[in-house]
Design a protein that fits this description.
Blueprint (H helix, E strand, L loop, with lengths): L1 E4 L18 E8 L7 H14 L2 E9 L11 H11 L5 E4 L2 H4 L3 H14 L2 E4 L4 E2 L3 H34 L11 H13 L4 H8 L3 H25 L1
Parallel strand pairs: 1-3, 2-3, 2-4, 4-5
Antiparallel strand pairs: 5-6
Helix pairs in contact: 4-5, 6-7, 6-8, 7-8
Length: about 230
């Protein structure tokens, strides 16, 4: 069995032999704080694998890492995904769905990646095992719930925007006040500071100063041409 922990050799560099005809299993363990331990997760999952006749070939452990963080912030979870793509194992086992992530959409995306690689998933607490027909059906239902969640989020956002319009609220970025714009134009005319310094002085974005500068330039050019014509 190959064990992969934070700071250890990357699991992608390890050897993943196929033990006879049994399924090769990778365990993913995670705790949110350094004071917690993954021992209970590991012992229980190893016991399940033994009862099923599966062989644990790799263990990926993210200790002290929040599940709310993305894949790029969880090195062992990232290694798990990479090795799944390389077909280094047949089943991913985790203690609970929240060990993999805190978002239903992220979970379904992860399940989709595993399914595309021909890798199954076992979640101990939820009793989900995609090596069985009922587990595969549950996987499809999770996809439906994830789509429902996305639709609900879109509906809430649209309802909020519609309510704001009805209340007369202006959507988008707040406009710069006339007094602030006049002060910026005065600083531009003085020419003693650059665009970034002017923006920092008045607490606006650089794009606001650039816009005001562009608006002033045509007027200045027209004035210069009119003076030349009079001469």
């Amino acid at each position: 069995m190959t064990t992969a922990k934070r700071g250890a050799v990357e699991p992608s560099r390890a050897h993943f032999p196929r033990p006879g005809n049994s399924r090769r299993v990778a365990l993913y363990l995670r705790v949110s704080t350094g004071s917690q331990t993954t021992d209970n997760q590991r012992l229980e999952l190893e016991a399940v694998a033994e009862r099923c006749g599966w062989a644990v070939v790799a263990v990926y452990e993210d200790a002290g890492v929040s599940g709310a963080k993305g894949r790029d912030k969880r090195p062992q979870f990232d290694g798990l995904c990479r090795d799944a793509a390389r077909r280094r194992f047949d089943v991913v086992m985790a203690w609970s769905v929240d060990r993999l992530g805190r978002s239903l959409q992220d979970l379904v995306a992860f399940l989709g990646d595993l399914h595309g690689c021909g890798v199954d998933l076992y979640l101990h607490q939820q009793g989900i095992d995609t090596t069985t027909p009922s587990g595969k059906a549950m996987f499809q239902m999770l996809g439906v719930f994830a789509e429902f969640e996305r639709a609900m989020i879109r509906e809430r956002v649209q309802a909020g925007l519609s309510r704001a319009r009805q209340q007369g609220k202006r959507l988008g970025r707040p406009q710069t006040g006339a007094t602030t714009e006049a002060a910026i134009q005065a600083d531009l005319a003085a020419g003693s500071m650059g665009i970034r310094k002017i923006a920092a002085k008045h607490g606006v974005g650089v794009s606001v100063v650039q816009r005001l500068k562009a608006e002033d330039q045509p007027q200045g050019s027209e004035s210069a041409r009119a003076l030349q014509n009079r001469q």
